[in-house]
## 1
Amino acid sequence: MVLPTETFAATVTQTQALQTIAKGLILGGGFIGPGIGIGLVGGSYLQAAGRNPGASKFLLGQALIFVALVELFGLLAFASIFIVV
Amino acid sequence: MSFGLPLLLADSGPAVHIAPGAVFQLGGLTITNSILYGWICIVLICVFFIWVARQVTVKPKGGVIQLVEVAVEFIVDLVEGAFDDEKVGRKFVPYFVTLFCFILLNNWLGLLPIVGEGFQVGGHPLLRPFTADLDGTLALGVVTMGLVYTASIRESGGLLNYLRHFFVGNPLNPLYMFIALLEIISDLLRVVSLSLRLFLNITIGEILYVVFAYLGHIIGPITALPFTLLDVLVGALQAYIFTILATMYLAIAVNAAGEHRNHDDLTEDKLPETIEVTRQGAGA
């Protein structure tokens, strides 16, 4: 079995290494915002549903819309890693 | 075997297609795998709904018909509830029910093993979900927003009247001009955001199965299964989101046009005191 470090040094150029780092940064940075956003939407939904359980069914539909609105930015970040060539 | 090493070397990863591939030529036009899949879905949906329409009776019957009735009634309630005037909403119901069913069928049939990367002919997948192709979702977005713009221009009575609802307050105030500009840009970007959301959700689902089936090696189908099950939920959610966002865009435009017309009909005694004062101030 070949040690990973030896193969890494032999086959991965500096450009490839930079691309890998760039993809990692895009994913990591791009998911922060949607993560916070979905957390806020979900937390607010639970607060509202706890305060008024009768409206929870209606509120769930509204909350899902906002989850989808927020999620778009995370998906854009995920799609951007494919244009890093 | 060297587990984990293929991940470090990006060259030997699984092959993922983001763009649709050409399957055959038809009279000078290239028919891609997503178009082929879209046609299959259209035929299936037509046959199924014609069959359902023949089977529907006044006295409720069990089985598939009841499920379809529940699904259709859900969308009908959703669309009609969004409009102030239910009669106006009822005009648009058929389009939105069709839209919802088409996207839902597209997303769910895309989970079958024969659709996507698993079944390839000549280097490309034979079938690709119509909603996992940006051309397809862009077409859906353009048609939907075309309906929204047409309906809102017609309901507000003329293009100028429609454009006027972006401009609130004094037109010479630069802040209001800036707000109107922002509103117009964000209105035009709805086509992009609607189509990109659907496209990215479904495509990233496809990529996830490929990646996790690749990671699983021999037990690939088992490692990809959780993501397939997740996509059952995501597919239904995205169909719902696309329909309700389109409904809301349409309802906001149409309801605003209706309010505008009613505003002129208000007689003096019905006007509250504060509105009267501001109206005089704006007119002076």
## 2
Amino acid sequence: MEGITKSFSGVTALAGVDLTLERGEVHALVGENGAGKSTLIKIMTGAYQRDGGQIWLEGRPVEFRSPEEAQGAGVVAVYQEVNLLAFRTVAENIYLGREPRRFGLIDWKRMNADARALLQRLGLEIDPRATLGSLNIALRQMVAIARGVSFNAKVVVLDEPTSSLTEHEVSILYDVIRRLKAEGTAVVYISHRFDELYTVCDRVTILRDGKFVATHALANLEKIDLVCLMLGKQRDELRKGTTAFEHQTATAAASAMAAEPLLRAENLKRGRKLNHVTVEAGRGEIVGVAGLLGSGRTETARAIFGADKIEAGEVYLEGKPLRLRAPGDAIDAGLAFLSEDRKAEGIIPELSVRENLTLAALPALTRFGIVSRARQQEIVERFIKRLGIKTAGPDQKIRELSGGNQQKVLLARWLCKNPKFLILDEPTRGIDIGAKGEIQALINELAESGLGVLMISSELEELVEGSSRVIVMRDGERVAELRGKEISQDSIIRAMAEGSATGDATSNEAEDDGGV
Amino acid sequence: MSQATTTIDDAGSTRGRVFRAKAASFIQRQGALVALVIVCVFAAMRYEDFITERNLLNVLRQNSMLGLVALGMTFVILTGGIDLSVGSLLAVAGVIAANLAGRGMLLAVVAAVAFTTVLGLINGVVIAKARIQPFIVTLAMMIAARGLALAATGEESVRVDRLSETFTWLGQGKLGPIPIPVIVLLIAYALGWVVLNHTRFGRHVYSLGDNEEAARLMGLNVGRVTLGVYALSGALAGLAGVILASRLGAGQPVAGTGWELDAIAAVVVGGTLLTGGQGGVGSTLVGVLLLGVIFNIFNLEGTISSWWQWVLRGIFLLVVVVIQNRLSSRK
Amino acid sequence: MQNATEINRVKGKPGLLAGLAALGPTYGALIALVLLVLLNVIFTPNFAAWTNFWNILLQVAPTMLVAVGMTFVIATGGIDLSVGSVMAIASALAATNLDRGVGVAILLALAVALCVGAFNGALITGFRIQPIIVTLALLIAGRGIAQVISNGGQLIPFSNPTFEYLGKGYAGPMPFQVLVMILVVAAAIFIMRMTSFGRYVVAVGGNEAAARLAGIRIHRTKIMVYALSGLLAGLAGLIETARLGASDAAKVGLYIELDAIAAVVVGGTPLTGGRATVAGTLIGALIMQVIATSFNMLLIPFSWSLVLKAAIILIAVYIQRPKVA
């Protein structure tokens, strides 16, 4: 693939990306959210059409107009959400659309026999007559791979194949990948787990913001360098002043911690996604949460807010335990949560700026069920002015606003409730530079006024310059805590990559905190 | 080596879950059958007249037309769709067939069924191409087809030509002791079963209702399957309409009102999920018979008024769905 | 400062066009209604007469009451098929209890209708069953219950001028039920726009996950919506009964759910929820009624009006369907 370009309604998702695959190679594809991995894969497998560039398969230029055509040519994708049919049998899933027939009727015998043979070739003992939904996720994934292989696949794309597998299951997957490799199939492997990349992959291609960054052999690329390439940092780069945060002094943080923490979440446990995570934050403090995708950072926030049911753990606000059955309970207690996915969980697209902004505050603005238009108007105008929300007016539909302004409206939705504690999940993602700075300055101001803030971010500058402490998460666990001067992009990257912050004096402390 | 044991381990841990899932899905799929058996045993013990050839064949005959409509509805619901137009299509077919009955049974049947198949096809085309929800599209077709049937007849029923005995044979005749409608019903269900379980079209119907997005990504021609099921539903509704006209000796433009709801209820009671992908024609036949036998018991009892019957039917539908929902959410 | 000027600049532009655009899909329905009325005024003899005007409003009133409730239900992304049967229950209850006093009869009927609706909502939220199935079951059972109440589906005639005023009375030149309809529509528009409940309804339909994270109690909102639908269906049932001077539990409100859904959809409230326009629903219901009335006056068989209605439903939904990029 060379110079692949794709844009969605004017927004460039991919700008001139190259990708070369050798026969029998396992090729890692990495990048943070929005880097363009999925788009690239979908173009490769015919789900999207490219705007520019060219694709060659075995030296010939090819054009896939649909997943069907790509499959026919031997290019198949196995998506992270296993895209198969849960109520159909294993054999049906493998041969859907190509069922062997006799006299116009499906030849079930042959189909099951073929499926069994195919699965055995991959070293799998799965009954082809079993319903897919009765298998565990790992086996389902293997079935998806088997389906791919059954097309005489030359290229198999595995999109986050291990995100929901146990270690046991991962080893089965590795075995299947090795067999594919031995047969000369090229495998594209997308994952955020570095250990895995280094175990199975030969080379890696890094994407960032829809652009091609580099392709390297993994054998001579250090983890640190890989993280730097993904995040777009120089290894020894320590830029400052790029964000609008005024660096909090270590003393502020210390005094905050001396007092009783404003919020303390203890031993949060939810499946494999959260493994006894403890987080605490004091008044006036901004606590950063760092971690790559899938590290459990968002899950922590949702658990504290009562949005997901947790198996174990307690949340204390001002020392009092909270009963959290639904987000409404957390809101009543004075918590606020700006979610990561603005579109799916934040805005209500068809409603106006006014309504989106005051949605959470409505109970307070309502008397006898009737919303006080005057007070609503006053709040909306105040916050439009205070946050500098650019809108044609309070009655404009929120979906018509830019991402930055939508985010400001959502932030205002919480601020007008005067919360005690603010949880921010990627507060500046997908926002233009100007609005970004404004939001960062605002967060700073809020903390100074006494709010507690938990800020999840994948932007390291934001964490380094904004937080008084940074908690680093990895694979559902809290692996390190950095304070004051220990906080640097370098130390965060190290902790994310290796599980603990190596460096002067940090390691001890981090381990103490992380080993809860 | 280590890999082989891993697989077996996984199989072992899965086994318990598989068993429980199987038990749950058995009750979900066959619960209606269990209920049907219980109800039949109850009826046989309580009423002498229940297990008589006459009564049983009567139950079958009375429900044969609803059975045909429900068969088509099963295909539609398996894809995750719904067809509200069946009652009206049934009336349209009845009117056409009654008009043409004088020119021979074959022509009448073919013309009537062909016409409703085309109307069903129109449903499918609009749903697949214009991407409007099946609920709305078939609601519009329900209203329009009813209008057509009423307009074409001047809102009066069309008497079947007295000379066309071959046509009335279709609804009133017998082959040995078995009424023709019952034979048609059984053949239709047998064919439906083969199509659903042993043809690509049938499996693709399931796949579409299972997970439309996945089916699309796996290269399935979703539009074609959609067209197929609505056309089939139209055809079967038409066939039911023809038989009804033949039985009554007239094509009534108001026939079949409310049948779409009865058909949906039968399909759901049988164990086919409204969300699609699970169920089958066997379940629907059981659903139709279960509702039919319950109705028959009401009649044999003689003291349960028809309004109480409606109350019980509604409650029954609700209870079945609640139980199904419990079972499927546990999985 | 810069923001302020920008806002002013954008604000200055719109005016009339923006006003029409704000009506959204309803705008098209309104034009269709105006065209229909104009055509009729020109081509249909006696169409432009006061009696006909009141007659159209009179006939649309029960459907409209039901359609208002349906608008709220559909705004949350649900549907309520049971409304016709709820009408029948209310009708039977009122007719059989008239001897205890008009007030008691009306209150009892409305209270039960409300409860049936709330029961719908409770089943939908509590068991997570699709609204279409739950309300289908209530549609089937409800009609039976109504007939049980009316002593076996008998026609129950009555003579009670106070109660009959509901359906036959006049307030000035205006039929009383038209007045009721206008009040309900006005109240519904007010509730939808001005109360927190109205805003929760569209928020739940627009993005349930976001609404939940904003602290909205999803279950409570949905139950209230179905209860409201039941209440308004009950009211429609009472008016129908009063107009007939008798309760016919087998016929009252039969298939009204379809007319109501059609009115809602034609009026510009999408079946997927998240947006709602009560005024649009009124326009949708009027379009349907004008078609029926004019066909009647032109002596075109009623049946052809069904075909036209179906076409209008499809066209309306096709025009309003979300544009896919």
